[in-house]
Write a structure and sequence with these properties.
By secondary structure, the chain is of the alpha/beta class. 37% of the residues lie in helices and 24% in strands. The chain contains eleven helices and 14 strands. The strands form three sheets. It has an eight-stranded mixed β-sheet, with helices on both faces. β7 and β8 form a beta hairpin. The radius of gyration is 18 Å and the shape is globular.
């Protein structure tokens, strides 16, 4: 059995980064890379690198992109035996970055995940019941998220993925309570129609979301439990190479901290340190991420 099961997207990231200032409406000189990605896959990959006993449930194509994603994820120590393999195109994410590594625009094609239905996951109920945490991203179908919240709400962590897909979380909260969600500023503002973070968090608590870790990029994060809010400082880092996957690493670090028995505040610190490692990487996961290095970095931040 597994300590964590992560459910959602696994794909190939195609990232185009301009050499200098990005100019819209024309061709920009730069570089293009192909790396394994997908929110759920990235989270699982980072957890595997941290030595966590983790499994991924996703729909992955039997194409070349799928083979690349499977090889990289397995190498990180993630169990893929629960995945659905399909004769369809593996999901893809195309991102355009400016010369500073900040996201300009992105398009994703996650149609393959429509094939991952509750009936594909129900046979794994024993594994889901045994897991300490279940992490699901909002690339998953609404009926699959509904099944997870109905049966495992007390340990379910939802990553909204994007502004548009975050609406799935709102729909979920109309029917179920959820243990924790990890939106960023844009996502929580879109879900609550306010830029007042205190009010936004309270709105979601009233809907049945027990805990929130709101990722704020270079400003760190805000933890809200319904009993108050706490600022979590960003981990210091020298240079942003690529923002892709930083939020996924923050979720992985957070889950790692919770697994180790830390409270949400300390667990969120682990998330911020993991995110800083991805920001310094050209990949969508943290290169060189390891448990000892993460623990040491968190301890250094607290000195």
């Amino acid at each position: 059995m597994f300590d964590v099961i992560v459910i959602g997207g696994a794909n190939i990231d195609i990232k185009a980064r301009a050499d200098g200032k990005y100019v819209a409406g024309t061709s920009n000189p730069g570089s293009v890379s192909f790396t394994p990605g997908g929110v759920a896959r990235n989270i699982a990959h980072n957890l595997g690198s941290l030595g966590v006993n983790v499994a991924l449930i996703s729909a992955i194509g039997n194409d070349a992109a799928g083979k690349i994603a499977v090889a990289a994820t397995s190498a990180a120590g993630v169990d893929l035996s629960l995945c659905l393999r399909e004769d369809a195109a593996t999901g893809s994410y195309v991102a355009v970055l400016d010369g500073k590594g900040e996201l300009v625009s992105a398009v994703n094609d996650m149609r393959i995940l429509e094939n991952l239905k509750p009936e594909n996951v129900k046979p794994h109920r024993a594994a889901l019941e045994a897991a300490k945490f279940i992490v699901a991203d909002c690339n998953a179908r609404p009926d699959l998220l509904d099944y997870l919240a109905l049966n495992f709400s007390e340990k379910l962590i939802i990553e909204p993925v994007s502004v548009s897909k975050a609406q799935k979380l709102l729909t979920l909260l109309d029917r179920h309570e959820v243990f924790l969600a990890t939106p960023n500023r844009d996502q929580i503002e879109a879900m609550t129609d306010t830029d007042d973070l205190d009010q936004a968090c309270q709105n979601l608590h009233e809907r049945g979301l027990q805990n929130l870790v709101v990722h704020l990029g270079s400003e760190g994060a805000i933890l809200s439990s319904g009993k108050g809010m706490k600022n979590i400082d960003a981990a210091g880092q020298a240079q942003v190479r690529d923002v892709t996957g930083a939020g996924d690493a923050a979720v992985a670090g957070l889950v790692y901290g919770l697994l180790k028995g830390y409270d949400l505040s300390k667990a969120a610190q682990f998330g911020q340190v993991a995110a800083s490692l991805v920001l310094n990487s050209s990949a969508s996961t943290a290169e060189g991420l390891a448990e000892t290095a993460l623990q040491n970095s968190v301890n250094t931040c607290n000195e």
